[in-house]
Amino acid sequence: MSERLAVIVVNYASSGLLATNLAQTAAELPDAAIVVVDNFSTDDERRRAVAVCAEHAWTLLTPDANLGFGGGVNLGVRQALAAGATAVLLLNPDATIDAASVALLEAEIDDGRLVAAAPRIVDSDGAVWFAGADLYLDDGTTRGRSRRDLHPDAPRREWLTGACVLVTDVAWEASGGFDEEYFLYWEDVDFSFRIVDAGGRLALVEAATAIHDEGGTQRADAAPSRAKSSGYYYYNIRNRMLFATRHLDADGVRRWRRGIVAQARAVLLRGGRRQFLSPWAPLSAGWRGVRDARRIAATARR
């Protein structure tokens, strides 16, 4: 590999996946540094993370609290860059990628340093999980790239999922890394925008493939599947408006604010209708997300 590569994995109560998925990827990339950030969940989980990282001689960072996805990534990347990495591969614990696909991502960044590159991502059954995604600027809807023909005239910008993405050191520094205020979800959308705003580019390398068994992260096409966690609902609803205040003008913020309830309903329906047989958890998370999204929008108007 021409890059000095580090693989960054943020663990939260998923040490079993480190022992299987990350071990598989690490075996494919023997020259890469492996950095695991264990966002604190329980003492038992911390002990398991320590054990698996010691077994494989991986670098383990152990914050005393849960820093969120963005905070965990930032901590891991700082460690990797300080140790001399020139590119970082952000990888979910429930994802794997082989050496050939990583080489294709590296080839994409060789022709320009201010680049982030992502593979096509499928689940274990071969169904597409991510093949490019767009954010529609008129209303804040995210859709898969394959649906562009349905909305040919709508203003949009691309984004890359943080589930598996290769980022150069230059792109990381120019963009400022992840915005930790998101905590969970939408930080990769925000990060993608800031790379482009800094003069960089995003690359979807469809010949490269990663495998990801969804553990609660959002599908780019927002297709309904199984019930999601309360955190999924809350942060996806809240963070849409946080993103708006970061990247849109006053008219855009007002436009997205008018769609908060409709977008919240769409987010809740990603978990399917059966979850509403016991509706308290999803509806409570949705209500809190709407409440805080409105608070964020109101603060932006001051």
Span of the ends, CA to CA: 50 Å
Say how many strands there are.
12
CATH fold type of the largest domain:
Spore Coat Polysaccharide Biosynthesis Protein SpsA, Chain A
CATH second-level architecture of the largest domain? Alpha-Beta Complex
How much beta, percentage-wise? 15-25%
**Overall structural domain count:** 2
* Global shape: globular
Q: Biggest sheet, open or closed, and with what strands and sense?
A: 9 strands, mixed
Put simply, the count of helices is 10
Helix percent band: 40-55%
Rg estimate, integer Å? 19 Å
Poorly predicted spans = 216-224
Q: Which H/E pattern describes the elements?
A: EHEHEHEEHEEEEEEHHEHHHH
Mean pLDDT reading: 93
The SS-based structural class is alpha/beta
The CATH superfamily of the largest domain bears the name Spore Coat Polysaccharide Biosynthesis Protein SpsA, Chain A
CATH class category of the largest domain: Alpha Beta
InterPro entries: Glyco_trans_2-like (IPR001173), Nucleotide-diphossugar_trans (IPR029044)
Keywords: Transferase
Protein name: GT2 family glycosyltransferase
GO molecular function: transferase activity
